[in-house]
# Entry
Amino acid sequence: MQKEAIPFGGAMGMKVAFCNALSLDLSRAKRMIFVSGQLSFDEKERFVGKGDIRAQTGQCLKNIQKALKTLGGTMHDVVLVTVFVKDMSGLKDIHEVRLEYFKEPYPTSTLVEVKGFVHPDALIEINAIAVL
# Structure
């Protein structure tokens, strides 16, 4: 599937793992995958990274990656992520971890600060949409 992206640029003063807009050639697209919001639970359902935004971000993305793989996709198929955080102060750390999982062209993204999550130690939740 061919992707064409409009880069975000440097307005945030750091490298970010998203673009402003993404165009997809859907002529060869076969399916879409919608991944629900992922918290920082590992494969044994243990909460990972209490107080550590980097660890929690990584676990959320590992969970998304695993769900995509199970359904025949990869992180490169992701076209949209929505990120919910408890505190914006970890933004740089979040993007550094995201850059380990996403390559150009980056997916589009929305990031929103929220009051809390279902798990009291959660600092971040991420959902994704992928097109295969």
Notes: Residues 53-70 form the longest helix (18 residues). Strands lie at 3-7, 19-24, 32-38, 78-85, 108-113, 124-131.
